[in-house]
Fold each of these.
Amino acid sequence: MERFVLRGAQVLYGGSFGEMDVAVEGGRIAQVGQRLNGDVLRVEGYLLPGLIDEHIHGICGSDAMQGAQAVEAMSRSLVRHGVTSFLPTTMNAGVEETRAAVEGAKEVMRAGSPGAFVAGVHMEGPFLGEKYRGAQDSRANLPPSMENFARLAGGAADVVRLITVAPELPGAQDFIRAATRRGIVVSAGHTDATYEEMEAAVGWGLAQVTHLFNGMNPLHHRAPGVPGAALTLSGLATQVIADGVHLHPATVRLAVRSGANILLITDSMRATGLEDGVYDLGGQTVYVSGGVARLAAGNLAGSTLTLERAVKNAMRFAEIPLEEAAAMASSRVAASLGLNDRGEIAPGLRADLCLLGQDLEVAKTFVGGKLLFER
Ligand SMILES: [Zn+2]
């Protein structure tokens, strides 16, 4: 097995940066330490665990709803942004369309992804509420149940790793319990749940909140609702879109300072990396202007954010160091999803690595020890 040693970078190891060598062998991290043996590859900048995007609809013209080819194209595009694992994310759609998308992602997993690793699917819908639908087409909404899930996921139910559900819907309790037992991580989103309903749902196994403050009731001082639950209940991780549009920078700072377990996501749609214009998102027309995607009615419709930019933005918005922002887009996401073989730079884990230059732009991306992007 091919072995090489990355030398010269500040390595994020055990929660802080230090200059050390990282030896890669057989697609895994073999050792982290000083003066390791092997062919040396000189690098400079910051070596991070590869970034993990658990909520992404599309990028560079491709959308996860289009099936296997589009997911492959997303996989190839994402390594430019330091992303080494992602969950292609579905939109609210009919049963056949959803099944085709989930099965398409599974096909790529089986064949082997060409770039960033497809680590499963995030189904954002159709077990969603009507009131805070955002850019989701609520005509496709269905009540949560394992029967409906089986129809929607078809032969690919085993690759669904994350599902967004409105926990106040009838049937949610049984569904959340059953999904959690199967190892699926359940996230509350597009929801009008009360704080008390959220508390109960955590007891059923609810583990995440989908894009904090977006697609949910607002935080009121006498009715803290979903945001209040996300920021205070232990056991919940909460997704944040740090693009400066979906949330005011101070709101990101507030969320981080609450001590909640923040996970950075992009929620990006296919116009990401392309020019302003008219695009499609889950069958709805989206107008992208100045990088901001909206439906004709004005609702925000996904983002054009990339995950390395989310890391940089989080540093600035929340006044946190790179090591903390990077963890929000790597180790914390892996831990919440139960992806125990990645998310940190440590011996035995997959050699999924993202090298940032001194300017914090992505300089190199390794997936399973293979150099798949170089600036
Ligand atoms: Zn989304």
Amino acid sequence: MNDLQQYFDRLQPRYYINEIASLGFTRLFRKIAVRKVKSYENKRVLDLMSGQGENLEFIKSPNENTAIVALDYSSAMHKKLAATFKKKFSVQQIQKDFFESHIPDHSMDIILCSYGTKTIEEDQKAVFADRLSRIIDEKGEIIIVEFVKPKIKWRASCVKWYIEVLVTKLFGNEFGKLFHYINKNESLEDLKNKFVQNSLSIISHQRYLDLVEILHVKRN
Ligand SMILES: C[S@@+](CC[C@H](N)C(=O)[O-])C[C@H]1O[C@@H](n2cnc3c(N)ncnc32)[C@H](O)[C@@H]1O
């Protein structure tokens, strides 16, 4: 088990604090991202780095053929996801590191990934985009939402102070750790370029509040 896996396992009982510490913005942008897909009817959905299944709450118009795969390497996150959503959805849970998992090519119609990409190492990003590009089927869509480093300097300083000083003081060091990952994550531009190279088309790529980006791509 690597350090990050242990970190997320330990964090799980207090993971809800992220929603409070982000003043509700984490939830808001997750909802906007998941609702980019108007209907999940008859869709095969991969919730990648699913955590406790926070995305599943926002899935619109699912039916009995909506098949969800939730992949995350944290066992604690999976337990909570199962307790919350197993009765509501047909969810297959995969507890594995994505980079060691074997999701078949062309096996998904939708891939959702919320707040999972910032901890991916730089040299793994191309591998990540390539694998997603293969997993998605014809006409399939990939939606990624992530915190990014603000471009405007004073905003970056405010975010640093807010997370490293205030959030850390109020909620503990484990939440302050987040800043390190946001600070090295300039944008989703590199993933976007890789998707374009893989012949996917960009439906939208937006930055909100100079702090969150949502990337929505499609295989034609
Ligand atoms: C910040 S949480 C996001 C959880 C959820 N998607 C959300 O919107 O709140 C990141 C999650 O990704 C998982 N994760 C990070 N890297 C992973 C990897 N390489 N393979 C599988 N899961 C990973 C962690 O265990 C954690 O649950």
Amino acid sequence: MANIRSNTYSIIIGENSLPSLNKFITKKNYSKYIIICDDHTLEKCLPTLLFHCPKLHEAEIIELESGEDKKNINTCIQVWGALTDIGADKKSLIINLGGGVVTDLGGFVASTFKRGVEFINIPTTLLAMVDASVGGKTGIDFEGIKNHIGSTQNPQAIYINPEFLKTLDTRQIKNGYAEIIKIALIADKVFWNKLKKLKEIDEFYTEEIITKAIELKNKIVLTDFYEQQLRKSLNFGHSIGHALESALIQQQKDILHGEAVIAGLYMESMIAHALKLISVKEKTEIQDYLKRLFKPISISKKTQQSILHYITHDKKNEAGKLCFSLPKPIGKFQLYNDVAINLVEEAINAYIKLK
Ligand SMILES: NC(=O)c1ccc[n+]([C@@H]2O[C@H](COP(=O)([O-])OP(=O)(O)OC[C@H]3O[C@@H](n4cnc5c(N)ncnc54)[C@H](O)[C@@H]3O)[C@@H](O)[C@H]2O)c1
């Protein structure tokens, strides 16, 4: 079992993490336990949690409908209402059991209910384990804008049981693996060299891989919690990736965040090479690995225009200039604050030809 220390809390990873949650809450003097889950994690994950944490048999359960489109203010109103009906108070503990939607929304609800109650994250998707639940960002989508409303609030602890991932389909595993690839490319070349050798889906989410990815993200977050500089490095693949994701969501196409990020990593590697930050060998190495694991996404002319629109309105931009985090070389990064739009266009055109 691994134990990663963040500033005020621990991230406990391994099959035995849940029994240690039982010990943690037994020691504390909470007035009530409230588990927030969605319809899928209620069925697939809650029985395991209750088996390993007998203390939680007395918990109240709040079940959300699953899906990104439920990560909104209406769901928050329902949860704040349910907490009020249950009689939750400042001494209650909220336990978020689910993917990034549950940990983002549950964390936000906890940080605002009665001006903040303590919460614990138990992420159950690979994306939530290595990214969403770690780093203290909580939030909801608002008027079509992702994560527009939120807070920065750390949980009391994070408990990660990789066994939960066994009920997740391949598409969802790859969705989370995208963020693992990203962190390796900007933070650890040795880790990247290890990932390059992985081919089978069940190799993507071993305890060792999850622990390493979290350690790398946690180190960055600890140095720059409020994203003044270093934390921006986590945006590699996300400038074009977010724009592509927004463009496809607007057209009501089925796209997962990690899938858009993989396309973003592919195109932004091209830009990193054009700016002479990585060699042609490194660019090819990254792109070959991505192509081997992920089918390219179809980008129409309309989507291309839409990507360019979103990228010029990206909240990461400063003074109207396009800001990117790019590898320099693999395993390190450079924040680039003035990427020319024609480089983005060229990268999209090259990506389209992959089809
Ligand atoms: N706060 C952050 O720093 C941060 C970082 C990255 C992503 N995010 C957010 O995370 C969200 C995406 O998270 P996600 O990909 O986990 O999506 P999700 O929470 O919607 O989960 C994906 C699907 O898997 C189901 N599921 C969850 N665990 C399961 C399990 N063990 N077995 C079977 N099904 C299971 C869910 O019910 C859902 O249908 C987005 O809203 C994104 O904005 C936040």
Amino acid sequence: MDQVSMMTTGDGTLTTRPIGPTFGAEVTGMPIHGNVSPEMLTQFIALLHRYRVLVVPEIMLDPADLVAFSARFGPLEIHSRFDNTLPAHREIFCVGNVERDGMKASFNRGVEQWHADSSYRAVPSDASLFYGEIVPPEGAETMFADATAAYRTLDPAMKQRIEGLVAVHSLETLRLWGQRHNPDRKQNIPSQVAAFPPERQPLVRVHPVTGSKSLYVCPAVISHVEGMDQAESEALLETLITHATQPRYVYSHRWRKGDLVMWDNRAVLHTASLFDHTRYQRLMYRTTVAGNAPLLSY
Ligand SMILES: [Fe+2]
């Protein structure tokens, strides 16, 4: 990876420091709270495409700031789990174990579940932004896997085998997974599941801007790979996710209050990790840039 680099525009200087083994960068100097020049925004988006995960450290945002900054990249999704959105800003999906002011964060006590956000939508999200509002002193890291580098290093026979394969992503499959791992958690109601019928997605994605291929493997969301029986399908997904999540392709983000992390859902996978929810509070705000956002998908 490159070393520290700086880019200056009319409204400031972006400083970039690579952080992951093959991807990821910390970015400082981005005017998150106020106006952003088109030039600065273009530079930031170029960094997102290049590094796939951007960490903006300790900037302290309120929900309105987060929504305003996120919306610069394109229309925002409203999460399918509406109960877990923030009443004053429905674009914000709340994650953690906090309940207050009519908001109940989505709490998951499950095991690792690698995915890209909203893969069950016909047009999945381009990018997500995740903000640390209340951060426990230990645990709760967010882990990212470089699905682009992981694809690049597959052996040629595997690349050939998976080329053109289609996986079916289903909110119902995710609901059943959640039920097995979180028996006490409220699951999606049938109308939510009906609103998102199963969607066919390529197992290998091509990024619309960089042209890079990446592995689009979300084991808890994929019901099956088309043309395979269940056993073959599960074995293939297991092989691919095991490859993609080797330590050399993973960056684990240890949160500080006020950190903002933005990632490109078309190039990386991510998962939560556990924390001691009996001792600590956690509250994260997520916004999700809808698919085919003009600035991100030019
Ligand atoms: Fe996610």
